[in-house]
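Before relying on records like the one below, remember that each one covers exactly one chain. Contacts with other chains, cofactors or solvent are not represented anywhere in the record.
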Amino acid sequence: MPLFRLGLSLAADCLGRSLGGCRWRNLSRVDNYHKGAHMKHLSMAEEVRTVTGNQAKRLKSSSCGREEEEKEEDGKLEEKGHTVKRFKASEDEAEDGAKRFPKRKIVLLVAYSGKGYHGMQRNVGNSQFKTIEDDLVLALIQSGCIPENHGEEMKKMSFQRCARTDKGVSAAGQIVSLKVWLIEDILQKINNHLPPHIRILGLKRVTGGFNSKNKCDARTYSYMLPTFAFAHKDCDFQDNTFHLNTETLATVNRLLASYKGTHNFHNFTSQKGPKDPSAKRYIMEMYCEEPFVREGMEFAVLKVKGQSFMMHQIRKMIGLVIAIVKGYASESIMERSWGEEKVDVPKAPGLGLVLERVHFEKYNKRFGNDGFHEALEWAEEEEKISAFKEKYIYPTIISTEKEERSMANWLETLSYHDFNSTASRTQLDNRDTQTNDHEGSDGFGDDSD
């Protein structure tokens, strides 16, 4: 038995060695196979890199060639006096870059001198009459706040102005609402693309559904005029030598205050009858401030705050008070003008009318302290607003009045009005239409909600 077991052990040992040799030979063959495959892959990768490099060189050479051709062509066009505007191939990439900034609904506090402009509202497709919004929208595009196609379709950015100031009318506190990309240093970048007589003075975030016209519950306008407009018609001083005394100023303020409350202002606009409910407007306050002297001429500023105003309404309100103070009409005409009969109400010149500010009391009460939005109040911007008026608005009004004498010329027409009789609506509407109105109306169309 021991010999038998020894034989089995020796046989097993030989078998193991034989199998082990086979295993190692097989492993060696597998290893050689993988090494061959790896070398083959390296060779293919090298070929791909070579081909890719050659293609890149060809593309670069082709691109450089095109750039040289474009530069040469641009140079030829510029030599002929043509302005070359080439859209970059990366325009879409630039727009995608702007989209990295959040798109939000905001309001802009806008101040502008209206001289030389045909009002605030833009007429897309009509370049004959330049408006404030033409310059504003262009600046928004150039600064990267909105894409270029929004300039042609302003609804895409939900653009809305609070009041449509007309030809020649200025603003110190116009509000526009719109959606923009909140880029860095947004105010500075917009202003860099605006002329100096148009400035963005402030910006605030608002709710997504905010509309600057519909959410506005009051507007304040001012009217700057030379005080000789209040000189009695029999007074010897009908020019810049006149000075408004305390008694006359008190009379002016008493008459202006009578406008407070709700009245039927169908006589203070055109194309509205006494039965039209929209002719009723609510006036909160109206008064004349203390006079001051500028460039040798005395001026005063009237202020009026109301829910909304119709076309020509403010200028006619002022024109009627001037006619009374100068002695052309009696005070009883004011009560008559609010009645159903048609009364001849003169319309003061448009020069001097300024949109001072717009009010959002209801919005501020609901959202001003919700922790997400700010109240639409501009106390921190008051200094900038005053500085803008002193630099751009008041000097323009004063110089234009002295050069063109718009108030003096208009005062001469008051004697043509018949304040004691009534006239047909057609006659008076035609008079309003035919009047040579160099400065346009205060008409914001109808800026009611």
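Residues 1-8, 14-35, 55-94, 433-445 have pLDDT under 50 and may be disordered.
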